[in-house]
Amino acid sequence: MNVTLGVALVCLALWIVFGFVIPIGVGAVHLLLAVGTILLVRWWALRA
């Protein structure tokens, strides 16, 4: 598994946890969604 894909999946998992399971009410949680999505698209574009 590529490092970019791993970090993207971790960011998206943390977003789900902090957004829905343990809602903390901070808008900065959505930065995890942005970073995860950007890294997932980056991985998809640069895969062999």
Main sheet summary: none
Mean pLDDT: 92
| Percent helix | over 70%
Poorly predicted runs are none
How would the global form be characterised? elongated
Rg, nearest Å: 12 Å
The secondary-structure class comes to: mainly alpha
Straight-line N-to-C gap: 13 Å
Number of helices: 2
Report the β-strand fraction as a percent range.
Answer: under 5%
Q: Please provide the ordered H/E string of secondary-structure elements.
A: HH
Give the tally of β-strands.
0
Features:
48 residues, mainly alpha, 75% helix
Write structural notes for this entry.
There is one protein chain. It is elongated and about 40 Å long. It contains two helices and no strands. The chain is 75% helix and 0% strand. The model has no long low-confidence stretch (mean pLDDT 92). Helix 1 packs antiparallel against helix 2. It starts with a helix and ends with a helix. The protein is mainly α.
Mind sketching the topology for me?
Layout: H1 3-21, H2 30-46
Provide a short characterization of the protein structure:
With 48 residues, this protein is mostly helical.
